[in-house]
């Protein structure tokens, strides 16, 4: 039976998703994207300059033009707007996310999806015999890629200073703040702000590099502590960005209780997550929900589910604002 062409096309696009992602990652790894950031070049110039095989490169470039990562004019290739976002020096570069999503440790966990749905066992732990953060503590190269990939997928937070007014938050604490990129952006936007980053001790070296100038000026401190055990940080505003979706409800309860215990009167807790919308088109949130299922014991949650987690900690939702890319900031407080 002849299939509908629209369905064929849509289904092929899904089935070939891994090929297309690998084509993009290959162009990044081979240095093609960074080289094209300088100036347009022909396939021959690229092949010679990067010591690549001319015919295979030509065919990879042709695919990337079809995917709107590159543009071709008069036989010369240039970065299209999506390609620009893959350049390592773009201020909101997604380069390391392209590499992280093609990494063996991410793909290996996803290969456990069907078994996980069959058995109910957590996929990452079934495949690797440990949880993701224990695995990262044992694998420094993957951990470095994870931290930089997380930062590269965090451009939604660029909108944060415009969406939430931090002018009355003299001290801001980013709990599980990764490599410190978001805190660095906030410290830049608010010159009077003091920042604190709480992370696993293994992550602090990268954060020290990112936040070094602010640490030297005495505007920023790093705290190596387990947020499941304590949040030993006094601040006016606390950020939990893409943290709670990593954890089951019980662990979220502990993290939130530890934040609540640290919060003084009037302090605010900002939860940055893909708060699940009802919108049927919101496929990103659904994809990240399954990704959380594969990688962690966590999930993406609705606003009502976050409210149910906040209440036992004596906190409640004050407002929810959109950040873009289906990300939202849920502002919580205890008063
Ligand atoms: C998904 S990443 C998000 C990082 C960052 N907030 C962002 O949005 O880019 C979760 C972060 O939680 C940190 N983390 C995990 N377990 C932790 C723990 N027990 N105590 C403190 N930080 C932890 C990880 O190191 C990681 O950087």
TrEMBL record:
GO terms of biological process kind: methylation
Domain O-methyltransferase C-terminal: residue ranges: 110-314
Keywords: Methyltransferase, S-adenosyl-L-methionine, Transferase
An MF annotation (GO) of this entry: methyltransferase activity
O-methyltransferase dimerisation domain residues: 13-87
SUPFAM superfamilies in UniProt: S-adenosyl-L-methionine-dependent methyltransferases (SSF53335), Winged helix' DNA-binding domain (SSF46785)
InterPro entries: COMT-like, COMT_C, COMT_dimerisation, SAM-dependent_MTases_sf, WH-like_DNA-bd_sf, WH_DNA-bd_sf
PANTHER family linked to this entry: O-METHYLTRANSFERASE CICE (PTHR43712:SF2), PUTATIVE (AFU_ORTHOLOGUE AFUA_4G14580)-RELATED (PTHR43712)
Listed name of the protein: Methyltransferase
Source organism: Streptomonospora arabica
């Amino acid at each position: 039976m002849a299939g509908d062409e629209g369905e064929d096309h849509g289904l092929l696009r899904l089935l070939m998703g891994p090929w297309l992602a690998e084509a993009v990652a290959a162009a990044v790894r081979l240095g093609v994207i960074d080289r094209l950031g300088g100036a347009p070049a022909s396939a021959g110039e690229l092949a010679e300059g990067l010591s690549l095989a001319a015919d295979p490169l030509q065919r990879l470039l042709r695919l990337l033009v079809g995917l709107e990562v590159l543009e071709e004019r008069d036989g010369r290739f240039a970065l299209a707007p999506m390609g620009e976002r893959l350049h390592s020096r773009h201020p909101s570069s997604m380069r390391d996310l392209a590499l992280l999503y093609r990494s063996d440790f991410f793909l290996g966990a996803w290969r456990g999806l069907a078994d996980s749905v069959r058995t109910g066992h957590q996929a990452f732990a079934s495949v690797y015999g440990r949880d993701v953060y224990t695995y990262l503590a044992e694998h420094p190269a993957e951990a470095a890629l994870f931290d930089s990939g997380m930062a590269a997928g965090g451009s939604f937070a660029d909108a944060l200073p415009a969406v939430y007014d931090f002018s009355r938050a003299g001290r801001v604490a980013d709990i599980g703040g990764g490599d410190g990129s978001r805190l660095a952006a906030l410290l830049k936007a608010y010159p009077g702000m003091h920042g604190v980053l709480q992370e696993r001790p293994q992550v602090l070296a990268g954060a020290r590099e990112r936040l070094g100038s602010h640490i030297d000026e005495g505007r920023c401190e790093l705290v190596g502590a387990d947020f499941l055990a304590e949040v030993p940080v006094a601040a006016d505003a606390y950020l939990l960005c893409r943290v709670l979706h990593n954890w089951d409800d019980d662990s979220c309860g502990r993290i939130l209780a530890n934040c609540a215990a640290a919060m003084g009167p009037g302090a605010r807790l900002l939860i940055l997550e893909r708060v699940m919308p009802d919108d049927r088109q919101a496929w990103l949130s659904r994809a990240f929900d399954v990704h959380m299922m594969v990688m962690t014991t966590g999930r993406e949650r609705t606003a009502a589910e976050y409210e149910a987690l906040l209440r036992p900690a004596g906190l409640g939702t004050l407002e929810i604002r959109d950040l873009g890319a289906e990300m939202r900031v849920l502002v919580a407080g205890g008063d």
